Task: inverse folding
């Protein structure tokens, strides 16, 4: 088991370095430094609140499910970061490219990735055609976290799984209480 974990960590570091090595490319740098904020609290909360205030009733329910998912998903992320104190890659590995003023909290799981996936999944379930826009957005946020030197691929993968699960659960739970609201 220890050998498996060691091999997994080596693979995690290899994939991380493969993404992070492109840090000096100006166009990628601009894109990932911008898109990463789509998974941040300010952007996700403000966007969801704006949709709740301005949208039609059925889209409003999808936004409420999204807000619920965002709130719920924060709880396991906080717990996991506390009980699994994994150092961020730029603190644990050498020759990592990272922006100034990096984060100091723990790496596992990626909160930005969890947040964006939990926020977009109710909208994708509500209107599957939105998947063409929202899924690339969420994936880009996840990649940005590695590109910027802040998370390992496994941090992002767990954030993706957690966010997707909570997003689906929130949508389905709200749909069970208001079955005709999300049609």
Result:
């Amino acid at each position: 088991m220890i050998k498996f974990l060691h091999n997994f960590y080596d693979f995690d570091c290899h994939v991380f370095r493969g993404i992070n090595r492109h840090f000096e490319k100006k166009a990628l740098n601009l894109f990932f430094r911008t898109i990463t904020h789509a998974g941040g609290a300010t952007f996700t909360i403000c966007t969801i609140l704006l949709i709740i205030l301005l949208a039609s009733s059925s889209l409003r329910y999808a936004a409420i499910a999204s807000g619920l998912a965002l709130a719920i998903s924060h709880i396991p992320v906080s717990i996991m970061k506390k009980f699994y104190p994994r150092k961020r890659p730029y603190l644990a590995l050498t020759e990592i490219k990272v922006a100034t003023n990096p984060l100091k909290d723990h790496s596992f799981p990626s909160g930005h990735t969890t947040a964006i996936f939990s926020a977009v999944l109710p909208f994708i379930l509500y209107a599957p055609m939105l998947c063409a826009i929202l899924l690339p957005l969420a994936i880009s946020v996840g990649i940005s976290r590695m590109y910027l030197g802040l998370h390992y691929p496994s941090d992002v993968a767990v954030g993706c799984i957690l966010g997707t699960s909570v997003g689906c659960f929130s949508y389905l739970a709200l749909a069970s209480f208001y079955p005709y609201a999300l049609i």
